[in-house]
Amino acid sequence: MTPRDASDSPNNRWSDLDRPPLNTTALRRGLVREGGLWRQVDVVQRTGSTNSDLVARAAEGDLDEGAVLVAEEQTAARGRLDRQWTAPARSGLFFSVLLRPAEVPVTRWGWLPLLTGVAVATGLSRAAGVDTALKWPNDLLVTVGDEERKAGGILAERAGDDGVVIGVGINVTLRADELPVPRAGSLALAGAVNTDRDPLLRGILRSLEDWYGRWRAAEGDPAASGLQETYAAGCATLGRVVRAELPGERSIVGEAVAVDGDGRLVLATEAGVQEPVGAGDIVHLRLA
């Protein structure tokens, strides 16, 4: 599907006055600067997947690090394991960024989704006044009433030999009757003091630039950059008994006790064994 620029102004652009379009000019003015990470910011009205678009463009060799692609609506958005992500137009933030961490060994690139989670949580705390917890490895949780609910997710994909595209989806103004599943949430339902998507996106991308700069300067060392400690402090999975559903229809139940230097979740099982989990679905069972 060919993306259309948001400035194309379709007739229904202002059909929901509670959900105004993003201001591309203001976003570029606030984010693109000499010596900064963000080189270009594009906003399209509608596309299949911002991640797929950036990966394809990176493969063509016409994108520098720091490209940002934002969509007002995605028709084929994907989460982990190719799960679909759906939301009404302009009800959230749906964007992808291209990073090329040349100074960092590829073995440490697995920290990028966790780094993005820290950056998003930090940015939303400042810009929206919402505490966002991190569910390992890539979910963003908010509290609605007394329930912990997923309000967003992160997806990382390789883009050629030297690049990574990070996609972020966040429910901002999604109403209760629009939730795709009852356990979903949004910033508005969590009591955000600000749901204006322009300052929210600027806050998140500035936070991401800051954390990425620290991590890259430390050559990807999660301890030296402060990333490992900060992620652990904001991770709602740690200290819980969880079930890790692994490839090959295998599962492990144990207490999540740490995130190790490789970004893996370490489970302490009843057998007295500590097992690191590098990939899989995590189900929160109860507090330890």
Automatic annotation (TrEMBL):
EC number(s) reported in the record: 6.3.4.15
Keyword Ligase: yes
Pfam families named in the record: BPL_C (PF02237), BPL_LplA_LipB (PF03099)
Keywords: Biotin, Ligase
First-tier enzyme category under EC: ligase
Superkingdom classification of source: Bacteria
Ranges for domain BPL/LPL catalytic: 36-216
Chain segments carrying region Disordered: 1-20
Molecular-function annotations in GO: ligase activity
NCBIfam families in the record: birA_ligase
Name this polypeptide is given: biotin--[biotin carboxyl-carrier protein] ligase
Naturally occurring in which organism (per UniProt): Streptomyces thinghirensis
Record lineage: Bacteria, Bacillati, Actinomycetota, Actinomycetes, Kitasatosporales
